[in-house]
Structure formats: structure tokens, C-alpha cells
Specification:
The protein contains eight helices and no strands. It is mostly helical. The protein starts with a helix and ends with a helix.
């Protein structure tokens, strides 16, 4: 029976096992001879034994092989010893039994060869199945690696999304804080605007009251002057015209001031400043009126040839013109500002 690469592999494995069991060289060669001849059906030779074992000299496998063949022939020889059987018959019977033994050995070798073929076919099938399982295992490992990679990528993506969500949450929190702050600032500005409007209304009421009081005082002064300077009707008429002119100017100034007040509500500071200027000028008017009253009193006490009515008739028009001019002065800058704002 010819040896195959698989037989060579198994034989080498068996010899390696025998090397550990039989440390003596001659015993190892003898066991290798029996293994090759009886198990694998290989006729052992000295060169082949030395190539497989690699121990001792070349004479050792030769001597062990001669002993193996001699012992095998001795064991395969059948001896029939019987007292009544002739010697030639014993030889023929021995040869017959030897032939039967050889046929039985050949049949056993054939059965062993068939069994080896079956085992080899089963081994090949097992190897094919193992190869298929290996392929399936490789496919499974590849799919597992792909799924592991996909899982890792998904985990990385989830981590990135979690970070993005945390950043978005922080941004939303910051924006909400900014919205709350802006709402608080808006409420504060609304409160400041309401307070400014209230202050403006109070200041406007004060200004109107002061203006009405000044007009009342002016009218009272005019009445007193008219009573005192009855003879100077011409001067009185001129004074009346100037007074009317001053009243019309005051009315126009008041309308201009109201229009400018409505357009400059956001500039409350400037308006307060201008209101202060108006109050100062009103105080100046008050001072002027007081001076006029003193002057009228002084004119009444004049001892000369001119009568108080004559002196008052000559000076009253100029005195009466000054309040009208004082009333018009504070309102002229307001009209200029209104024109600038409208442009």
C-alpha cells in the first residue's frame, strides 16, 4: 500500500510519540518497524528508518531490521508436532497452515486497507466539514467585526449627539437667561418710562399753573395800570394791542410746546432742562412784574410837575411790552428744536 501525505503526517506524529515512550534507540527502531509494517502496511528499510528516527548510526537500523524480519518469519512459521504423524506429512501440513495463515493475513490486510480507506474518506469529509465550518466561522467573525464596527460607530455617534445635546441645553439655558434679563430690563425701562411720563405730567401741570398764575398776575397788573392811566387811552390801546399780541404769542408758544412735548417724550431729561429754563424765565417775569409794581408805586409818589398818570402813560407801554417779550423768549428755542426734530 503506497503512503500518502496524510499517512506520512500521522506516521511522523506516531514516531514523535514513540520517541517519548522509548528512550533507547534499538527499542525505538523496533517499534517503528512494527508500526510501519503492521499499522500502515509500509515495508521498512534501513534508510527509511534512519530518515524517520534520526538516532544512532546507519548500522543500528540495519541490525534492528534484520532482527525484526527474523522474528517475524519465526512467528509466522507453524510447527505441527505429533507422535504418530510422519515427518513429510508434518512438513506438508505446516506449509498448508502457513499458506492459510498468509491468506488470512492478506485478507486481514485487505480489510485493514478498506477500513483505512473508509477512515480516510471519513477524515476527508470531516476536513471538508471543518473547512466549511471554518468558512462559516470566518464569515461569522467578519459579520461580527462589521457589527462591532457599526456598534462602535453608533456609540461614537451617540456620544457626539449627547455632547451636542448638552451643548444645545447649555445654549438654551444661556438664551433663556438672556431672555429673562432682557425681560427684566424691558420691565425696568417700562417702569422708568411710566415714571418719566408721570414726572413730565407733574412738571407740565406745574408749568401750566405757573403760566396761568403769571397770566392772572399780568391781567391784574394791566387792570391796575388801566385804572391809573385812564387819560392815556392811546397808550392804553397800544398796551392792549401789545398785550393781545403777547397772548397770541403765548398761545402759539404753548401749542408749539405741546407738539414738541408729544414728539420728545423719550428725551425727558432735555425737556426737564427746558422746563427749568421756562421756570427761570417765569421767575424773571415775576421779578419784572414786581419791579413794575414797585415802579408804579414810585410813580405815584413822584412830587414833580408830572402827574403819576402822565408818567405812567409814558412808561407803561414799555413796561407792559417787556413781559410779552419775556413770555416769547423761552418759547423761541422750542420752535427751533421742533423744526429740527420734524426735519
Amino acid at each position: 500500500m503506497t503512503d500518502t501525505p496524510s499517512d506520512e503526517t500521522r506516521l511522523a506524529a506516531e514516531i514523535d510519540r514513540l520517541k517519548g515512550e522509548f528512550p533507547k534507540t534499538r527499542e525505538l527502531y523496533r517499534e517503528v518497524c512494527a508500526l510501519m509494517f503492521f499499522r500502515y502496511g509500509i515495508t521498512p528499510t534501513a534508510n527509511r528508518l534512519y530518515q524517520l528516527v534520526h538516532r544512532g548510526s546507519m548500522g543500528t537500523p540495519t541490525a534492528v531490521l534484520a532482527e525484526f524480519w527474523s522474528e517475524l518469519r519465526e512467528k509466522s512459521r507453524v510447527r505441527i508436532e505429533h507422535a504418530d504423524m510422519p515427518e513429510e506429512l508434518q512438513g506438508v501440513a505446516g506449509e498448508l497452515i502457513g499458506a492459510l495463515w498468509n491468506r488470512a493475513s492478506a485478507a486481514a490486510q485487505a480489510s485493514l486497507a478498506a477500513l483505512r480507506d473508509e477512515v480516510e474518506a471519513a477524515r476527508q469529509e470531516a476536513q471538508a466539514a471543518a473547512a466549511a465550518l471554518q468558512v462559516d466561522l470566518e464569515r461569522t467573525e467578519t459579520a461580527l467585526e462589521q457589527r462591532t464596527s457599526a456598534l462602535l460607530a453608533a456609540q461614537v455617534r451617540i456620544h457626539e449627539l449627547e455632547q451636542a445635546e448638552a451643548a444645545a441645553g447649555a445654549t438654551v439655558g444661556a438664551l433663556e437667561g438672556e431672555v429673562v434679563r432682557l425681560q427684566q430690563e424691558g420691565r425696568a425701562r417700562d417702569a422708568a418710562l411710566a415714571q418719566a411720563r408721570t414726572d413730565f405730567s407733574v412738571e407740565l401741570d406745574k408749568q401750566r399753573a405757573s403760566t396761568e398764575l403769571a397770566e392772572t398776575r399780568l391781567q391784574a397788573a394791566e387792570k391796575r395800570a388801566l385804572l391809573e392811566i385812564e387819560r392815556e387811552r392811546t397808550a392804553n390801546a397800544r398796551l392792549q394791542r401789545e398785550t393781545d399780541t403777547a397772548a397770541r404769542r403765548a398761545a402759539r408758544a404753548e401749542e408749539s410746546a405741546r407738539a414738541e412735548i408729544q414728539s420728545l417724550q423719550a428725551q425727558l431729561g432735555d425737556l426737564r432742562h427746558r422746563a427749568g429754563m421756562l421756570e427761570g424765565r417765569l421767575e424773571a417775569m415775576h421779578t419784572s412784574h414786581a419791579a413794575q409794581a414797585k415802579e408804579l408805586a414810585a410813580l405815584r409818589r413822584v412830587p414833580g410837575g408830572e402827574t403819576p398818570a402822565t408818567t405812567a402813560g409814558r412808561r407803561a407801554p414799555r413796561r407792559a411790552a417787556r413781559p410779552a417779550a419775556d413770555v416769547a423768549k423761552p418759547l423761541r428755542p422750542a420752535r427751533k428744536t421742533t423744526a429740527k426734530t420734524g426735519s
